[in-house]
Amino acid sequence: MTVWNLGSVNADRFYAVPHIPAAGETLAATGYAEGLGGKGANMAVASARAGSRVELIGAVGADGGWMRDRLASYGVSVAHVAQVEGPSGHANIAVDGDGENQILILPGANVLLDRGQVAAALAAAAAGDIFVCQNETNLQREAADIARAQGLRVAYAAAPFSAGAVGRMLPVTDLLVMNAVEARQLEEATGTAPADLPVRDVVITLGPDGCRWIDTVSGQSRDFPSPRVSAVDTTGAGDTFTGYLLAGLDQGAGMPEALHLALRAAALKVTRRGTADAIPARDEVTGWQP
């Protein structure tokens, strides 16, 4: 089967800082690096490195050729990553000594996707495939409508959080993934608890405490612990989790097995600096001893 990912592609610019800067503060960075990122690219790389066939639907500017090449080197199909006018998306990321981060994003090409491009890409999808999107591109609901009409399972990562975007996506979402902050924001915006959302499966990531899976049909909730590690960079951990979760489901695993795999991958990722370039391969995850 295939994971179809409507997602962002960014150049990630990392600045090592002694602490996360406060409002109005000028802070000298102690280190700098650049790599591949964007929530879509990160999830696509994670799913591909976990062993799934992945088709990324996205866009870069004229400056983004190196990002397409790097995605392809990680096993992601870039046949549907278009080149458009204007700059590629990029993110400036401050990372402190505890691995916590602060991120400033320019969407760039990521919000210039064309409806025809998306429809043409998904025309090749098959019933039983998985479709996933996030909130860093345009056309999420339009693409999800196409995917659902073709029998795909629709997954949605509600980040960066937008109450309006989530509201548009909930009616067509089968699997909702969000972190604890986003879950709280969604409940405040809608007045609806996660367990009462009109979504078959809700997964809430809990940072170092693991994740919670809510089966809204049965009404049951189950917590899964995460391996304990010393984090050096939490950037992209949630994307790694989501990409591995979808790959597990794509390859026939049940939700508990897929969640255990995703938690291991995310825990291993935070022991490495970087985003897409730091996502571990499947054999590294399964052979790892925390």
TrEMBL record:
Catalytic activities: D-ribose + ATP = D-ribose 5-phosphate + ADP + H(+)
Active site: 239 (proton acceptor)
GO molecular function terms noted in the UniProt entry: ATP binding; metal ion binding; ribokinase activity
Quaternary structure note: Homodimer.
Superkingdom in the source lineage: Bacteria
Keywords tagged on the record: ATP-binding, Carbohydrate metabolism, Cytoplasm, Kinase, Magnesium, Metal-binding, Nucleotide-binding, Potassium, Transferase
Keyword Magnesium appears in the UniProt entry: yes
HAMAP family: Ribokinase
Binding site for ATP: 179, 205-210, 238-239
InterPro entries: PfkB_dom, Ribo/fructo_kinase, Ribokinase, Ribokinase-like
Keyword Kinase: yes
Pathway named in the protein's UniProt entry: Carbohydrate metabolism; D-ribose degradation; D-ribose 5-phosphate from beta-D-ribopyranose: step 2/2
Subcellular compartments: Cytoplasm
Similarity comment: family membership: Belongs to the carbohydrate kinase PfkB family. Ribokinase subfamily.
Known cofactor(s): Mg(2+)
Entry protein name: Ribokinase
Binding positions (substrate): 10-12, 38-42, 136, 239
Cofactor stoichiometry and binding remark: Requires a divalent cation, most likely magnesium in vivo, as an electrophilic catalyst to aid phosphoryl group transfer. It is the chelate of the metal and the nucleotide that is the actual substrate.
Source species: Pseudooceanicola pacificus
CDD domains reported for this sequence: ribokinase
